[in-house]
Structure formats: structure tokens, C-alpha cells
């Protein structure tokens, strides 16, 4: 067990530090000051950390244009601007994500559009705005997009999402599964080839590459390499039978981050090097031009850059059995601002950020304020005995899939979000109030 | 397998029917008309059904005042008004739920306040507004509320939440567990007795009863009865040692509903009769006055009264293996408007509501539009082969914990909600737009 006053550097934002008085700062800004001004819970995003992870990815994958930030992890106008300024491309997966990006003046030609069920209206918007790529997910969509592009007298560049039959998680992967899912065309059944041929032959579509996604929280290159090898077989067939070399190979996301002190994040530079070398090697063996590899990290960029700051409320020692007492520490948020523990049994690293703690370590559970016994942030942990009501607790690595999936359960407003950089705080999203919720109510009695 | 054109009466709203042309109506309103006017997805709430379930509960439990509608299942101003007009009481579990209820002019004296982590500000509001009962959940809160009531020169009536050590689900219950949770005071360890004594002795608190909650989706009386028996032992001790008969026994919620055709909802009248008889019997055996039993249904009132209407988009036949094909039917919502399948592996009954279907039954999966392969509404079902893009699908029993837990994942706006009664549609909540989401963005660059 590490010292509770430490901030594990591989889990916390790059610019997080504990001052001599015990207060935790991010980018030089004391978290208690942010809590005081913006209230709790509040998400604090380390801008330089975010940008540095964009650059790490860009360096690893041969250029910022090859890295597509996945909006679904967490998107605001300011984040879209950071992504744009760093030269990355952007993935969107819904009409509203596209509208959000465009409202931040993100260049449409650097946007790739995902989704298993894009409406005609969404596809018309994509073509009209001139998005870089639409990732086709079904024969029906392929025909519809071709027709829409024709009606706008345009040629739309597309990718085709294929299922390589590889499912990767952590350090393991399954090489023969994952066909039975909603996304993509099957390589194994031949439907991916049929789709590639159809896209190649469609007058108003231009096939730019194939896309696949192997999983989430992946920590090494093996699963990606196997998927690339399988997908490149189809590139070879396309080369041989259709006479074209597709310029891009989109290998999706899945780059794992460390949520707890025991985890190690995926080594982006090492995995990228191994993966790119493998793609070049496979292409050479197949006698085709190696496509440019494109990747789509969301969590690996946004995840580690943010911390959720909560205030401690009720503390209660619960008699579990004659030998065990567990201290329940309640904070002023929970499953409305972070559904991941309930949904995915996700674990988190949490620390007191308002000062040093040094009491005896007690069995503890960090819980939220929702009216549901499953509203738990950290199920099994140890907390120093001197943690008390009014202290601030920071939960690290909440930058991805927390705010993005947040709800208004129990009529909780969504938290405020701020970004910090070189000692300065800038509000990013204001806290949602009861008035915001009531604004949806019909005036009719 | 039932006929796909049926609407199982024990799952669908009481006023749902299929017309001669195959279109499904609720309270006489064709669902396609609602979809046309309000867009999809849309929640349609059957007002008379909702009110009738309030009355069924009131009749079963000896009076509307003994039934507390649990806001967390689904609360809007109009629903608060229905609950008020039917004479029920209301449970809230957060400051915003209380504010929402008060904004609908729900009488504060009929409101009971729950929560494991009520802030001082929330408790001050409770006392100032004169809520009926505050359910105390920790020694810390007991002291704080007493102090707050004193500072406002009031006496606040309270319940104490106790853990009876019973955990009930479906037709089974566990008689010796559930101590290790965030809510309540333990009966077994004596802390519930200590709290009762402290509340009794507190100058500005008036102890009205004890509260317990045994679980969710319970289908018979056994678990409730065992909990009541254990809690009543403490009533007897309070009677004997403190000389008072507590007027109320709050047995919480958990009354199960049918989500699928194979399930039978809990028989409210029968379970209530058995439970009330048992409480009277236990009290007589203990030589104490039988307290009035109070219950807190949320799901059992709201759940069956609403249907989510989606429009079918992409349809794709997925090659699962050489012998199996699965039809993936995508609709224009998903885990943002109904997290329950992903969160609890919840199952639902779904039907085409825009007309008859009669094709061959195919293995099918109903999926949403989110960028996540786990975004599934119904995992294993059979759908007629003639279901096609543009059809409307209704998902029954979505009145509880769907809108209430909805998110903006993938920047989806929350759906519209309407209520229907005797052929008339009234908007309840308007659809959330991208502008609503952008309204939270800070103006600062």
C-alpha cells in the first residue's frame, strides 16, 4: 500500500502535486480554491496534460493528422479547440457531437463520422459540411450515403468498419469472436469484401480505407497486430481484384490507462512502434503499399487529465460482523457524475486533496449521495481515520466517460467543469441548476 | 411465444390497445401521431393508468396517505400534481427533488425526505419548508438535524432508517445479510436502538417511526413480513423502555412489476392484506399498539404506465456463425434514455406499434444508436421479418428509472415526454436540444 498522501504519477494528471501544506494543486491551482469558487462536485481538467497526451500520440503515430480524438470520451467546445490546435483529427458518433464540434469551428474535413444508425438527416449534414470521412456500418447506409452525396453533387470519402473477429481487453485477446455485435461488416463471412467492392463501385463514394476496433483498456500491441494482419488481407484482395491501394488503415481506439496504483498505462510509443512496424511488414509480405495507420484514442488522451473533487459529508462506521467495521464515507456526488463503477465495476484512485491525512488506516467504502445502495465510488479501500466531514476528496482519471455519461438521477444537476493551466482557472462548463432541469417542463398544467 | 401483435396486458399500460389497422394507441391516442408531432424517441405516459395504480395502492394499504410515491423513479411537476391529487404522500431523496416537488406546490407536510448524505443546507430547507418526515440515516445527521430544528425553533418529525438484515429480490430473500451497505442503522448491532433513544431524547426531534427497505422487484410478502417482525421487536423495546408507541412503520418500496410477458407483477392487494395482518399479529403478540404501515412504491406506480417509442433505422443481418444469422434492428435512442439493460441486465417487452407485422420470426437484437457495442435494448428476441426502417417500436414499462437516469451520452438530448388521457396528448417535458447542451458552455475561450 502506498502512502495515502502520495499522488501516483501514472494515475494523476501530469501537473498534479501536493504542496508543503498538504493541499493538492493541479497546474499550480489549489483544488480547495476551485471547490470554494465553483462548488463541488467539480471536474478539473489539466490543459497542458491534455495537450501533452495529444502530442505523445501524434509523435508515436507519425503525425497529429493520424490521431483522431474520440469525442464520445468527453467533448466540449474548448476541448474541440485544444484538439484542433494540436492538429489532431476528431471522431464524432452522433449528429449532436458533429454539431458541437462545428460550433467550436473544428474543421469539418478533419472529422470522421461513426455510428451504427446514422439517420438520413445526419448523413445529409455530414456531406453538406464536408466531413473528412464517414465510416460505413451497413449495406443500407452505404446505399443511402451514395444517394445523398449524389443529390448534393459530391463525392464523399468513406471508411468501412470491419469486424476482424478479434476482441481485446487488458493483456489478453480472443482471436475468434466478437462477430455477434452491432458494428461493422464481417471479414470472415465475406460481407466486408462485398461492402468494399460496393463502395469502390459507388459513383459518389470514395473508399479511403477500412476501420476496425478491437476493444477497450488494451495494454499491448498483440490484439491490434492480429486485427491489422487480418484486415490487411482484405487490402491485398482489394489491391489485386479492384486495382487500388487504400491510403488509410484505421485501427480504432482502446489504448489503456491506469485507473489504480497497481495498473500501468499502455506504453503508447512502444506499442505504436511495434504496430507500425508490423503493418509495414504485413504489407510488404502481401506486396501492397502500406496504408497510413490512423488511431482513435479518447480515454488515453482525456482520461488521466481530469480529477473529480467532492466534499466529504456523512461518515458512518458500519458494523459488518462481529470482527469487522467498515467506515462509509459519503461524498456529494456519485453515480450521476460517474456511472462507471456501477456500470463496469470500474475502480478508481482517490485521495484527500485538502490537506495531509495521517490517521490509522481503516477499511472504508467511498459512496455517493444517491438513493441506491449500489451508488458506490470505491468499494474496497482504506482511508486514514482522520478524514472528516468537509474534507475534499479527489478521484483521479475521471476525464473520460464520466461527465460524458453523466445523468440527472435524483434530480442532481451536472457538475461544473473547469480547466487549469499555469496557475489559472478557466470555467469550461457551468454547473447545471434545478432551473435548467425545470426549463424542460411544459407550461401546460 | 405469444403473438407479436399482442400487447400483454400485465406489461403494457392499462389503456394501450391495438386498433383494427394495427396501430397501437394509448388512451385512444395513436402512437404514430405522437411520434409525428413530438419526434422520437418519446416517452408516452398513460395518466389514467398512473392514477389507477395510485388508487390500487391506496386501497390496498388503507388510505392514500399511507402510500408515498418515490420521486426517484420518475418525477416531473405534472407527476407531482397527479400524486397530490390522488392524496398520496411523496418521498424525495435530494435537495433538487424537494425543490422540484415544492415548485409543483406539493404540500411539504406530505413529503418524506431520504438520503444517506443530506447536506446542512438541505436539512435547513426541509425544516424551513416543514416537510412531514426526515428519515435519519446516521448519528451525525441526527445531531445536525436536531441542531438545525432548534435554530429554527421547530420540532422536526423524523423516522429512523434501520437495517433489518433482510435482502429480498424476486421470490427469494436472504434473512441474514445486507448489513454492509450505506443506508441505515443496524438492528443487530444495537445502533438502531441507540439512534431511536437519541431521537426520542433530542429536544427538537419527534420520533414518528422506523423505516426499512428490503430490496427491489420483490414479488411476495415473505421478505417484507420478516423485516417487519424484526423491526417491531424494536418498537416493543421502545414501548417498554421509553414508554412510547411509535405511530408509523415505513416498510419502503420494492413492489415488483412485470417487464416481460413471462413475469407476473406483485399482487398488491394480496401482499398488502397479508402484510398488514402480519404486522397486527406481531404487534398483538408483543403487546404494543400496531403502527400504521406506510409504503414507498415508485416503480410499481410509474413503471408500467409509460412506453418509449423509437423509430427503426438501420437493419442488418449479422453472420454469427455458419448456422446462425442475427438481425440487428437499430433504433434512434438507446443507453442514454434507458441505461437499465446495460446497468442491471434488465429485460423489456417490445412491439411494433405502427402497424401489424406478420413475417417469419427471426433471431433478433434490438440495439441503440450509441457508439458502444454494449448499447443493447433487448439482447435476445425474435422479430418478424417484415419489420423495416421507419417502423415505430414501443418498449413497454419504461416509466421508472429510464428518464430519471437518462444521460446525454454521445451528446444525445433527452427525449420528449408526453402524457395521454381520454384521447388527448399533453406535453410534459420538451425534448432537450443541442442548444440546451451548449447552454452550459462557458463563454470564455
Automatic annotation (TrEMBL), chains A, B:
Pfam annotation, one family: Orn_Arg_deC_N
Annotated pathway: Amino-acid biosynthesis; L-lysine biosynthesis via DAP pathway; L-lysine from DL-2,6-diaminopimelate: step 1/1
Keywords: Amino-acid biosynthesis, Decarboxylase, Lyase, Lysine biosynthesis, Pyridoxal phosphate
Domain Orn/DAP/Arg decarboxylase 2 N-terminal: 48-302
Residues annotated for pyridoxal 5'-phosphate binding in this entry: 254, 296-299, 401
Listed GO MF terms: diaminopimelate decarboxylase activity
Major enzyme class: lyase
Swiss-Prot/TrEMBL cofactor(s): pyridoxal 5'-phosphate
Entry's transmembrane regions: none
Residue positions binding substrate: 299, 340, 344, 372, 401
Recorded superkingdom: Bacteria
PANTHER family reported in the protein's UniProt record: DIAMINOPIMELATE DECARBOXYLASE (PTHR43727), GROUP IV DECARBOXYLASE (PTHR43727:SF2)
Family per record: Belongs to the Orn/Lys/Arg decarboxylase class-II family. LysA subfamily.
Protein name as it appears in the record: Diaminopimelate decarboxylase
Species, as recorded: Corynebacterium breve
Amino acid at each position: 500500500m502506498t502512502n495515502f498522501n502520495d499522488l501516483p504519477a501514472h494515475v494523476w494528471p501530469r501537473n498534479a502535486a501536493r504542496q508543503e501544506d498538504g493541499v493538492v494543486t493541479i497546474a499550480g491551482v489549489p483544488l480547495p480554491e476551485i471547490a470554494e469558487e465553483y462548488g463541488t462536485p467539480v471536474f478539473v481538467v489539466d490543459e497542458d496534460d491534455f495537450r501533452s497526451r495529444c502530442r505523445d500520440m501524434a509523435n508515436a503515430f507519425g503525425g497529429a493528422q493520424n490521431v483522431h480524438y474520440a469525442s464520445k470520451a468527453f467533448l466540449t467546445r474548448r476541448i474541440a479547440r485544444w484538439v484542433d490546435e494540436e492538429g489532431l483529427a476528431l471522431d464524432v458518433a452522433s449528429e449532436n457531437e458533429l454539431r458541437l464540434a462545428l460550433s467550436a469551428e473544428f474543421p469539418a474535413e478533419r472529422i470522421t463520422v461513426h455510428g451504427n444508425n446514422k439517420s438520413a438527416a445526419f448523413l445529409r449534414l455530414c456531406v453538406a459540411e464536408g466531413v473528412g470521412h464517414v465510416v460505413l456500418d451497413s449495406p443500407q447506409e452505404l446505399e443511402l450515403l451514395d444517394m445523398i452525396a449524389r443529390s448534393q453533387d459530391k463525392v464523399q470519402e468513406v471508411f468501412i468498419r470491419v469486424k476482424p473477429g478479434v476482441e481485446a481487453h487488458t493483456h489478453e485477446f480472443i482471436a475468434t469472436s466478437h462477430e455477434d455485435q452491432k458494428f461493422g461488416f464481417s471479414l470472415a463471412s465475406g460481407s466486408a469484401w462485398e461492402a468494399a467492392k460496393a463502395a469502390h463501385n459507388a459513383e459518389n463514394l470514395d473508399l479511403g480505407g477500412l476501420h476496425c476496433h478491437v476493444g477497450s483498456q488494451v495494454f499491448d500491441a498483440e490484439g491490434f497486430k492480429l486485427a491489422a494482419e487480418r484486415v490487411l488481407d482484405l487490402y491485398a484482395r482489394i489491391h489485386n481484384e479492384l486495382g487500388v491501394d487504400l491510403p488509410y488503415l484505421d485501427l480504432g481506439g482502446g489504448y489503456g490507462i491506469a485507473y489504480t496504483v497497481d495498473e500501468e498505462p499502455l506504453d503508447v510509443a512502444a506499442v505504436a512502434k511495434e504496430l507500425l512496424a508490423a503493418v509495414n511488414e504485413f504489407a510488404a509480405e502481401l506486396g501492397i503499399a502500406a496504408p497510413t495507420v490512423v488511431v482513435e484514442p479518447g480515454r488515453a488522451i482525456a482520461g488521466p487529465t481530469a480529477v473529480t473533487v467532492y466534499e466529504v459529508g456523512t461518515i458512518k462506521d458500519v458494523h459488518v460482523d462481529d470482527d469487522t467495521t467498515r467506515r462509509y464515507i459519503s461524498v456529494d456526488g456519485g453515480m450521476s457524475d460517474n456511472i462507471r463503477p456501477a456500470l463496469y465495476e470500474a475502480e478508481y484512485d482517490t485521495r484527500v486533496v485538502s490537506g495531509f491525512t495521517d490517521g490509522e488506516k481503516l477499511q472504508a467504502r467511498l459512496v455517493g449521495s444517491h438513493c441506491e445502495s449500489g451508488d458506490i465510488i470505491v468499494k474496497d479501500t482504506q482511508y486514514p481515520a482522520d478524514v472528516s466531514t468537509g474534507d475534499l476528496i479527489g478521484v483521479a482519471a475521471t476525464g473520460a466517460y464520466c461527465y460524458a455519461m453523466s445523468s440527472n438521477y435524483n434530480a442532481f444537476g451536472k457538475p461544473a467543469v473547469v480547466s487549469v493551466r499555469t496557475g489559472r482557472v478557466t470555467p469550461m462548463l457551468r454547473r447545471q441548476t434545478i432551473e435548467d432541469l425545470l426549463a424542460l417542463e411544459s407550461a401546460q398544467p
